[in-house]
């Protein structure tokens, strides 16, 4: 669904680059996993155009010259898998920006993947934190969270949503009325202990909506499965976080799915 006349969409897209770049955003936390562990980190500065010269600019449909390696920990890489509609993800002034000219809500912005070809031995658990800013109340295309595949396959295992930390940016007018707009930091995990074959490589893939912004990533892996939710709700409460966000995102995704189903039948 489009809310914006075609002749204004390119102007809007350019404005969003500047507007969203000025917004503050939430942070990623240390998980302190037990066992044999490895952590890869991409901070905001690591995803910017100044840290990645030679990458395409707006609208982002150009090929990346190579993956963006993690700047701390292991040797995992962030790479572009596919462009979106009329654009794609690229390093902007302060984030990976899912570029394009469209004014459509929930428009496909392109697919990225975090890959690791040297995971810890006897990999049993992976946690993935991703900080992403919304565009028109959406962050991931169609509301689909990142998926996990391994050993060169396309299993696309569903993540467990352990926590959602939301930072309020303001409100925006949507077809359903005024909606809140957020920067979201998701903590996702996969319990891999039931997989009998050794995991020798893996990838975590996700598709953002056009005009969303990717601010930071952290990949944690271990040969031991935590006995409790990571991060624990009690420790999150110290930061003003916790399970409130989980209930909210569930209700919000259910509402969006209902709206999408309704629009498809009208």
Automatic annotation (TrEMBL):
Keyword Signal: yes
Domain Ice-binding protein C-terminal: residue ranges: 229-253
Keyword Signal carried by entry: yes
Keywords: Signal
Signal peptide: 1-26
Cross-referenced Pfam families: PEP-CTERM
Entry-linked NCBIfam families: PEP_CTERM (TIGR02595)
Name of the protein in question: Ice-binding protein C-terminal domain-containing protein
Organism encoding this protein: Blastopirellula marina
């Amino acid at each position: 669904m489009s809310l914006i006349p075609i002749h204004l969409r390119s102007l809007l897209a350019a404005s969003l680059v500047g507007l969203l770049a000025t917004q503050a955003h939430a942070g990623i936390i240390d998980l302190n996993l037990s066992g044999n562990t490895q952590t890869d980190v991409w901070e905001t500065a690591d995803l910017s155009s100044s840290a990645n010269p030679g990458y395409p600019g707006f609208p982002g449909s150009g090929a990346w010259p190579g993956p963006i390696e993690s700047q701390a920990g292991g040797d995992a890489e962030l790479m572009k898998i596919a462009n979106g509609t009329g654009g794609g993800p690229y390093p902007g002034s302060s984030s990976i920006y899912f570029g394009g000219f469209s004014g459509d809500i929930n428009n496909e912005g392109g697919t990225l993947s975090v890959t690791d070809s040297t995971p810890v031995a006897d990999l049993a658990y992976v946690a993935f934190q991703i900080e992403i800013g919304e565009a028109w109340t959406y962050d991931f295309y169609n509301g689909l969270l990142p998926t996990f595949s391994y050993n060169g396959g396309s299993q696309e295992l569903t993540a467990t949503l352990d926590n959602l930390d939301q930072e309020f940016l303001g409100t925006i007018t949507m077809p359903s009325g005024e909606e809140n707009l957020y920067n979201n930091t998701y903590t996702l995990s996969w319990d891999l202990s039931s997989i009998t074959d050794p995991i020798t490589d893996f990838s975590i893939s996700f598709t953002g909506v056009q005009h969303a912004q990717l601010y930071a990533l952290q990949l944690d892996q271990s040969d031991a499965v935590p006995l409790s939710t990571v991060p624990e709700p009690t420790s999150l409460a110290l930061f003003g976080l916790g399970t409130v966000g989980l209930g909210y995102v569930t209700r919000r995704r259910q509402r969006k799915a209902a709206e999408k189903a309704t629009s498809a039948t009208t």
